């Protein structure tokens, strides 16, 4: 019963986090369209996130313990911070130069497959097993995500740039689950407990060297960032970094030892494409989705619901369904 409750809570966290995480794609698209330099876009979000998380951790009396762990294992947070956060946001910021937010959000959903496929290379225990049913359901969800894009991809006339954008987002889709899961595993091996906010704060501190380089490059290329770009990045730090990132990490931590539930939680990120499309419709005046989008959304909903039912059944029988 306790496992069922934790899984249900993790699903709620995952869906809510996907809503806030989608703001990254919307805000990056808006900033790119207004002429903001990509390097500032990649750096400012994390720079604003550090004091936000620091204040929250301070008032929850967790800041000093977090700093102690980071100082004890600086290379650990440097490595996974640069990979899981630095490479991720740099890739997404660059991709926004050539692709609209909805296309980036759709491509980024490859991360829900990457999280499953990378498991044998990440985990040393039973979690390295790839559960077949969640893998199939994830492929169904990804099929729905890409079907949603069929009617719009034809409107894009810069195939070369779109291809470059695709590979950049692909990099981000791989390093996101890699950094998140590897940090959890490394902390487990050292018997160090950190909650979701603490891990996000530690990884953000770890990518500081890259943030400095991005700021210097952005200043060299375009001068200081404009106030609208700073404002947009601040909102991205709050909604995507703080609420979305910490929420998703909390969901993953709740089911960190259950491979079937992990796959289901990562699959909730497919909802980011829906939230991104709705956000761009409201903020950028995009038209209502057509038949392909509705068909794809139907597949996503069916895949997600089946994912959740499979996880629920797995928890009841207490064995991996394959």
Sum up the structure in keywords.
mainly alpha; 81% helix; 322 residues; globular
Topology:
Elements: H1 2-33, H2 38-59, H3 63-72, H4 74-95, H5 101-108, H6 111-117, H7 119-122, H8 132-147, H9 150-153, H10 159-189, H11 196-206, H12 208-222, H13 227-254, H14 259-267, H15 271-284, H16 291-317
What low-confidence regions span 5 or more consecutive residues with pLDDT below 50?
none
Q: What gyration radius follows from the Cα positions, in whole Å?
A: 19 Å
Shape: globular
Largest sheet: none
Distance between the termini: 22 Å
Could you spell the SSE succession in H and E letters?
A: HHHHHHHHHHHHHHHH
Number of strands: 0
What percentage of the residues does DSSP assign to strands (E)?
under 5%
Helix content: over 70%
Average pLDDT = 82
Alpha plus pi helix count: 16
Summarize the structure.
The chain is mainly alpha-helical and 322 residues long.
Can you walk through the features of this model?
The chain is globular and about 60 Å long. The mean pLDDT is 82. The protein is mainly α and 322 residues long. It starts with a helix and ends in a 5-residue tail after the last helix. It has helices spanning 2-33, 38-59, 63-72, 74-95, 101-108, 111-117, 119-122, 132-147, 150-153, 159-189, 196-206, 208-222, 227-254, 259-267, 271-284, 291-317. Helix content is 81%, strand content 0%.
